[in-house]
Structure prediction request, 226 residues.
Amino acid sequence: DTGVSQNPRHKITKRGQNVTFRCDPISEHNRLYWYRQTLGQGPEFLTYFQNEAQLEKSRLLSDRFSAERPKGSFSTLEIQRTEQGDSAMYLCASSGRWDRPSYEQYFGPGTRLTVT
Amino acid sequence: LAKTTQPISMDSYEGQEVNITCSHNNIATNDYITWYQQFPSQGPRFIIQGYKTKVTNEVASLFIPADRKSSTLSLPRVSLSDTAVYYCLVALPNNNDMRFGAGTRLTVKP
Prediction:
């Protein structure tokens, strides 16, 4: 496994700008998850895909947040009109190899967003 | 989803066994208990999962009493590199909505 990769690793943006993050899951995984983590807290679940279908999105923080996984491979998370409160680490995880249970999620290194 | 409660922090010394207890009084019949480890500036890493009694792998052991209202993660002979945050989660085995609490910050001292 090459692991889950996320790009960029760091993003600094001005309030009001749009940002997009990319996640490349482990290739044989069919499930992909997005989380947000703020300092001193555990990851907070945002949304989940099985293949290209977004099966859970009610936990996205607001309508400024959206995610896609167009071909069931990589995924993008977009935040529109960023606010300072969006500053956090955004984590991606994948799971679903045929011989491993789905609760065993593999996390990427995260993208740290700073909104100034 | 059952709520979990863990100590905020723990200190230990190299070579000692560390036990981190998590309480989950409202655990449902079909829920499993899962533990993750997170180092600074990294995503969490799966450690172990269990349903009842005892589970052991190459990294840790998980002890779950008969009432399943708590669980204990046991790390044998910790080293400095075990300094991390440890999260206890309770969910269905295929529950994709994993809810992390604040975790337990373990500091291993020389």
Notes: Chain A has a mean pLDDT of 91.
